[in-house]
């Protein structure tokens, strides 16, 4: 129940980034650790808050299969996030996140790469 509510909150909050013109960032299952660190830096610079993307597992093709995203508040405390153990894509906006499981990536409105 808690995960469902968090997912709904992330979905609701993240949809506002598309309308405001704020940068929308993405992490795909083929991203390397250095690409993920670059997205974290870009999110911190663009949004003014610390974010952390945790890769919890990869498959034999080195694709991310389990990922967790955490956003920290201005006070440095963990503020929210989203995760997937069947990871497909993560979308990060100024006010939230969206995550799609593998096979459901097309159901998210995707920003330009």
Q: How would you summarize the topology of this molecule?
A:
Elements: H1 2-20, E1 25-28, H2 33-47, E2 51-58, E3 64-72, E4 78-84, E5 87-93, E6 96-101
Antiparallel strand pairs: 1-5, 2-3, 3-4, 5-6
What does it look like?
There is one protein chain. This protein is α+β, with helices and mostly antiparallel strands and 113 residues long. Helices cover 30% and strands 36% of the residues. The chain has 2 helices and 6 strands, in the order H-E-H-E-E-E-E-E. It has helices at residues 2-20, 33-47, and strands at 25-28, 51-58, 64-72, 78-84, 87-93, 96-101. It has a 3-stranded antiparallel beta sheet. Strand 5 and strand 6 (96-101) form a beta hairpin.
Question: Which tags fit this structure?
Answer:
113 residues, alpha+beta, 3-stranded antiparallel beta sheet, 6 strands, disordered N terminus
Beta-strand portion reads 35-45%
Q: Count every helix, treating DSSP H or I runs of 4 or more residues as helices.
A: 2
| Largest sheet, spatial ordering of strands | 1-5-6
Shape: globular
Derived structural class: alpha+beta
Task: Pick out the low-confidence regions.
Answer: 1-18
**Approximately how much helix is present in the residues?**
25-40%
List how many beta strands DSSP finds.
6
Tell me the series of helices and strands, N- to C-terminal.
HEHEEEEE
Rg computed from alpha carbons, rounded to a whole number of angstroms:
13 Å
Q: How many strands, what sense, and barrel or not for the largest sheet?
A: 3 strands, antiparallel
Mean pLDDT: 83
What is the CA-CA span between the terminal residues? 33 Å
